[in-house]
Design a protein that fits this description.
By secondary structure, the protein is an alpha/beta fold. 37% of the residues lie in helices and 15% in strands.
C-alpha cells in the first residue's frame, strides 16, 4: 500500500501542512511556493500537469475553476492522481483530520482520476 502524497495549492492555509507534519513527520505534503513544489502563481493547468507527473494529490479550495480545468485535462487524454476540493466552511481542524485519515488508512491508487470533496 502506497500512502497518498498531497500538494496544497495557494488557496489552502499553510497551517494545515504544519499541523499534519506535527501529527506525523513522514507525511509527504508540499505547498505551492515551497521548494520542490510549483511556484506561486502557477496556472491551474500547469498544476494539474505537475501532479500528473509527480503523483501528488491536489488539495484545493478553488471550487470555481479547478473542476473545469480537470475536465479539460481529462478531455486532452491526461490523468490526475486525485483532486480533493475543500467544502466551503470546512474548518482547518476538519481538513487536517480528514487528510490524516486518508494518509493513514488509504492507498494513493484509490484517488486516481477522482475529484472528491472534503470533508467527506
Amino acid at each position: 500500500m502506497t500512502p497518498p502524497r498531497f500538494l496544497l495549492d495557494e488557496h489552502v492555509p499553510y497551517v494545515i501542512q504544519g499541523k499534519l507534519l506535527q501529527l506525523d513527520a513522514e507525511i509527504d505534503i508540499l505547498a505551492v511556493g515551497q521548494p520542490l513544489a510549483p511556484p506561486k502563481g502557477t496556472s491551474d493547468q500547469d498544476i494539474l500537469t505537475w501532479i500528473e507527473k509527480t503523483g501528488y494529490i491536489l488539495v484545493t479550495a478553488n471550487r470555481r475553476t479547478i473542476p473545469e480545468h480537470v475536465r479539460a485535462h481529462y478531455a486532452a487524454g491526461h490523468h490526475v492522481p486525485g483532486v480533493l476540493l475543500l467544502k466551503r466552511g470546512a474548518s482547518p481542524g476538519q481538513i487536517i483530520e480528514q487528510l490524516y485519515l486518508l494518509w493513514v488508512a488509504s492507498d494513493a491508487e484509490e484517488y486516481v482520476d477522482r475529484l472528491l470533496y472534503l470533508p467527506m
